[in-house]
Specification:
The structure is a single chain. By secondary structure, the chain is of the alpha/beta class. It is 45% helix and 10% strand. It is globular and about 55 Å long. The two termini are 34 Å apart.
């Protein structure tokens, strides 16, 4: 049954037609009884975006659109104009168009704008980067575009924006963009602890924060950090008993990619306070990943049972 808030609200989701996260947001909002529309316009076509905003007159906009590259962010290194047109100009245009219409917008961004350093944020020390820390990672053009957008949002003083910094998103369905799918297919993986976003647990929080019109920049990861080896060990123990993998160093990894990759832990204290404000639960990353694999294993057993019948 739809709540009064859901009935009164109307969501327009950019990236809801074909985007991985956007489609999940559409399904989640529909299951909540909310009125939701998947945007047809593309971010780089600002006139079409403005027309669609005026046509649907949403109370909330969720932006999960953008270019991450195919098959990965290395693509952005050789397609900088296209990446800038969408990730910077298009995103900022959407945010400004929403400001002109007094529409709350949730912008799904990235926390891959930091990297462990030798001073205050060493690997494994548990001292995560906060929303107030200046970005220190510029190893990929993709990350540079995200840093620019966030800087403009904050410097301009937009008061209608909820900026959510996702990292290494993980889903139950082994989608090709999920971190688990990627690292189970790699020949070798780097074993470094990182903050990550388990979508099953975190997207309902995003919807709750958007519905309450929370604003500001928030690290949007499950609390804590988890390494690739820890994830793959759970995958082996709970889902694929015969699974094996190999490690290599970060230096070896950097030799086989075009753009460097960010490794960091983000502080989730600000997000935890926002969750309390809207009455949602924030799961620690190890607990969230284990829960994801338990659901995955249960789903596979259910499929096997159906095949036998």
């Amino acid at each position: 049954m739809a709540t009064a808030a859901a009935t009164d609200s109307k969501y327009l989701v950019f990236g809801g037609k074909t985007g991985w996260v956007g489609q999940k947001l559409i399904a989640l909002l529909q299951s909540n009884g909310s009125t939701v529309v998947a945007a047809n316009s593309r971010l780089e076509h600002s006139q079409d975006v403005a027309k669609e905003l005026d046509e649907h007159r949403p109370t909330h906009v969720l932006n999960a659109a953008g270019l991450t590259g195919r098959p990965n962010v290395d693509w952005c290194e050789t397609h900088k104009e296209e990446t800038t047109r969408v990730n910077v100009i298009g995103t900022l245009s959407l945010i400004d168009l929403c400001a002109q219409r007094n529409i709350h917008i949730t912008n799904f961004a990235t926390g891959c704008i930091y990297h462990y350093d030798a001073l205050n944020h060493q690997e494994g020390d548990g001292h995560g980067f906060t929303e107030e820390d200046a970005p220190n990672f510029a190893g990929s053009f993709y990350s540079k575009t995200k840093t620019v957008v966030e800087d403009v949002i904050v410097s301009t003083g937009y008061t209608h924006v909820l900026q959510l910094r996702l990292r290494m998103p993980i889903s139950d369905d082994l989608h090709h963009r999920s971190l688990v799918t990627k690292i189970t297919k790699y020949e070798k993986v780097v074993n470094i602890p990182n903050s990550m976003t388990v979508l099953y647990d975190m997207l309902p929080i995003a919807v709750a924060l958007a519905g309450a019109k929370i604003t500001g920049v928030h690290n949007f990861t499950n609390p804590g950090a988890i390494s690739h080896n820890e994830i793959l060990t759970m995958y082996r123990d709970l889902v694929r008993p015969d699974f094996t993998w190999k490690n290599f160093t970060l230096e070896e990894h950097d030799k086989v990619v075009v753009a460097k990759r960010s490794n960091n832990e983000l502080d989730s204290s600000k997000l935890a306070l926002a969750c309390k404000q809207v009455g949602t639960e924030l799961l620690e990353i190890h607990e969230a990943v284990r829960g994801m694999f338990e659901r995955m294993a249960a789903a596979e057993k259910g499929e096997e049972g159906e095949e036998k019948e």
